[in-house]
Amino acid sequence: MLNRWVEEDGLLDTLEEEGIGSIVFSPLAQGMLTNKYLNGVPEDSRAGKHVGSFQESFLNETTLSHIRSLNEIAQNRGQTLAQMALAWVLRKGRVTSALIGASRKEQVIDCAATINNLEFTEEELTAIDQYATEANINLWAQSAEREGPSRPAKK
């Protein structure tokens, strides 16, 4: 939801045309699309420990505002933010699997409950698109800056 480049580059359209599925890496945006960071950065979180590729700068006020708005939409759907984010990612056949990266069994249980509400109304999708915007937290792009291109260049 916070990395929309794959839509802009046309990759998902190509997959659909060719009848090929894809696996989504980090559909919960390194935990940002969970309730973990809604009220600040917990000390025991990846951002709080300053480990891995997650940067606290990803949690700028604009992105946090968008995440909070997405959370409200999820609550109106009777879902957690993580459940809605997974349902959104899996809403079309182009994505056949999503790697959640859970570290606790409670996270797995929460994410598995996504199957209880996979359908979206047009109104929900329109509301989600207002807030599910490119947040410049694309870890792949950061990797490309360090190591060279990791995705096709735009035409």
Descriptive tags:
155 residues; mainly alpha; 6% strand; TIM Barrel; disordered C terminus; globular
Would you give an account of this structure?
The protein starts with a helix and ends in an 8-residue tail after the last helix. Helix 4 crosses helix 5 (81-89). The chain has one domain (5-147): NADP-dependent oxidoreductase domain (TIM Barrel), CATH 3.20.20.100. A two-stranded parallel ribbon has the order 1-2. By secondary structure, the chain is mainly alpha-helical. It has eight helices and two strands, in the order ααβαααβααα.
Report a brief summary of the structure:
With 155 residues, the chain is mainly alpha-helical. The protein is built from 8 helices and 2 strands, in the order ααβαααβααα.
Secondary-structure map with pairings?
Layout lengths: L4 H4 L2 H8 L3 E4 L20 H4 L11 H16 L4 H9 L5 E5 L5 H8 L9 H10 L7 H9 L8
Helix pairs in contact: 4-5, 4-7
Looking at CATH, which topology would you report?
TIM Barrel
SS class: mainly alpha
Total E-strand runs: 2
CATH superfamily: NADP-dependent oxidoreductase domain
